[in-house]
Amino acid sequence: MSSVTDFQTTQPEVRSKEFRKFGIRDKIGYLCGDLGNDFFFLIVSSFLMVYYTDIFHISAASVGILFLVARVWDAVADVTWGRFIDTRKASRHGKFKPWILRMSFPLVFFGILMFVQIPGMSNGFYLVYAFITYILWGTLYSTVNIPYGSMASSITSDPVERTTLSTFRTMGGVIAGLLVNVLGPLILFVDNKADANHFMMGAIVFGILSLSSYIACYKMSTERLIASDSQENKTNFKLTLKGLLKNKPLIAMLIVSLGSMMLTMLSGAVNVYLYKDYFGSASLLSVVGLIQISAMIIAIPMAKPLVAKFGKKEVAAVGMLLAAIVYLSLAFIPDLTAIQFIAISTIGTFGVGFFNLVVWAFVTDVIDYHEFLTGLREDGTVYAVYSFARKLGQAIAGGIGGFAIAVIGYNSVNTVQTEETLHGLYRLSTLVPGLVYLIILALLVFVYPLNKKRTLQLSADLVSKRNEGK
């Protein structure tokens, strides 16, 4: 990999004190961070829309506007907070993880507050209440998630160990998904209907689990690579911006993440209606959660050896190909039973699993590439820009999700939806995912440049440049 000559840089100094060796404690600690994130994130992405439409009686279109506004604001908050983190000096506990501990308490509090129903209030009150609590929760989520995501590149510099961290992060999401998607519908719904008291109970239970996980992440993770004081004080926004614009791997991952997160949010919201109304049983969501999480668990031990042999980009691309084939096939297979649909879609989930297992290692590679271009180690800023794309995807999905549900004619007052609405739900759950997976596949193959060979070369080039700067 050739050097970039149009940047005049100095190499960043990195303090690396004598810490215990990277090991299972770091992996479990990093797993706990995403466990904490996803206990609430999954409740929000999968069940908040149905809570708003069926309990607060907010129209699906209004919910779509709320999700759109909140996610755009969150995207801005991500970048602002990432830049703020990069300008802070590291404490003796590290630069990133202290913020996880500090901000996790208000984050969980406002998460629970979203699911509080106040008897006797008007629909207008609930709309305003939803806007305030949801936007506050999303802002606080940025203050925890940005330092958590940025922390991976400071725990270890080894590419293989970073892939392991990405795998364990995904395992955290898998465990949270197992608990939320399997237990959630059983807790939140009564007689196939969303129940306000049960939603509140679920929010408290998962809130406590979330807070406990954040504390475990703080206690068990160790930041080994910490920028020196001279690096921390040397912030050059013009140089940073120039590096971001020239970072082709970052730009590719921004587009991929935009599509991926847009689909995750859209599918999470639509699937509740698909099983509740199209297949006639919200409790089937527990079966779906269990089976599809099982598919992810099967993929976990396969990910590391496959990545070691073929590379992250290559493994992720094959996974997207499999997912695209499965969902496009489902779109054109008529009159499937719920069990048949679940069985076939699980194969697609297996393919998506490989992408999810390595995606966070892509991010650490992108952060390294930024350092290669600029000579600045700006983990928080680069991760925040990446998170910006994910939040923008959430914004688009939230808006499209609410409007799509409204356009196909969903009406929360109706006990049984019209035939046209039911077919619309099915198309949203199959054809749309298939097309998005196909687009992501094309981006990985033709746009993202860091294949296995170039990633290894990047790591070697960084070591060389750092040594030259000493």
Automatic annotation (TrEMBL):
It is a multi-pass membrane protein. Pfam families: MFS_2. InterPro entries: MFS_2, MFS_dom, MFS_trans_sf, Na/Gal_symport. PROSITE patterns: MFS. The chain crosses the membrane at residues 28-52, 58-79, 99-118, 124-148, 168-190, 250-275, 281-303, 315-333, 339-363, 395-413, 425-448. This is Glycoside/pentoside/hexuronide:cation symporter, GPH family. Residues 248-470 form the Major facilitator superfamily (MFS) profile domain. It comes from Paenibacillus macquariensis. Coiled coil: none annotated. The keyword Transcription regulation does not apply. Keywords: Membrane, Transmembrane, Transmembrane helix, Transport. Its main location: membrane. It is found in: Cell membrane. PANTHER family: MAJOR FACILITATOR SUPERFAMILY (MFS) PROFILE DOMAIN-CONTAINING PROTEIN, MAJOR FACILITATOR SUPERFAMILY DOMAIN-CONTAINING PROTEIN.
